[in-house]
């Protein structure tokens, strides 16, 4: 079973406010993403840290009941701590055979994009499977269980992409929508104006 990890613990200092609850398509980003991803029937692990309570308050109760919410107390140390938090939770509380890591702010990534990523991964489930746009390897990405210990040993603000660089073999699926992350209010305004 693949578990989907929504990475939402960071402060997003460039955004200037709590990005996780900024409005995308008339909803807080965190709510929008959960509602979009739940129909995929992949168990969701939401990793929170910065301003956890305000973000929790923006998630309707019926959505909270359908996902796992995990607090990363070391969110300020960088992305690696959230990856490690997800791995620890998965090992202790689930039978996850792989983790699909997705930053919360990839609002343009669709259900179809995720299904394609999962389908590609399942061809060789012993290998990492990452997304790609314009020859750039990126998230969302799926890591099989044999990489969990390596993920746990990462540190700082570097994500798990370094594991892909060091892997002898891995899979790629083209995902143009992975290019659009919400780094600034201006980018969010631009993405809100685009048609879905």
UniProtKB/TrEMBL annotation:
CDD domains: GT_2_like_f. Keywords: Magnesium, Plasmid. InterPro entries: MobA-like_NTP_Trfase (IPR025877), Nucleotide-diphossugar_trans (IPR029044). Residues 5-167 form the MobA-like NTP transferase domain. The keyword Magnesium applies. PANTHER family: MOLYBDENUM COFACTOR CYTIDYLYLTRANSFERASE. This is Nucleotidyltransferase family protein.
């Amino acid at each position: 079973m693949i578990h989907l990890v929504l990475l939402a613990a960071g402060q997003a200092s460039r955004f200037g406010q709590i990005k996780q609850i900024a409005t995308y398509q008339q909803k807080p980003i965190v709510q929008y993403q959960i509602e979009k991803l739940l129909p995929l029937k992949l168990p969701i692990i939401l990793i929170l840290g910065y301003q956890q309570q305000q973000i929790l308050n923006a998630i309707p109760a019926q959505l909270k009941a359908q996902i796992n919410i995990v607090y990363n107390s070391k969110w300020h140390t960088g992305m690696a701590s959230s990856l490690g938090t997800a791995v620890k939770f998965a090992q202790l509380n689930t039978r996850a055979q792989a983790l699909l890591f997705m930053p919360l702010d990839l609002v343009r990534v669709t259900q179809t994009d995720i299904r394609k990523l999962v389908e590609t991964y399942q061809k060789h489930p012993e290998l990492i499977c990452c997304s790609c746009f314009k020859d750039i390897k990126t998230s969302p990405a799926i890591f099989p269980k044999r990489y969990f210990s390596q993920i746990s040993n990462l540190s700082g603000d570097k994500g798990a992409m370094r594991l892909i660089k060091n892997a002898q073999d891995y899979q790629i699926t083209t995902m143009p929508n992975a290019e659009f992350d919400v780094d600034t209010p201006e980018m969010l305004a631009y993405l809100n104006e685009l048609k879905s």
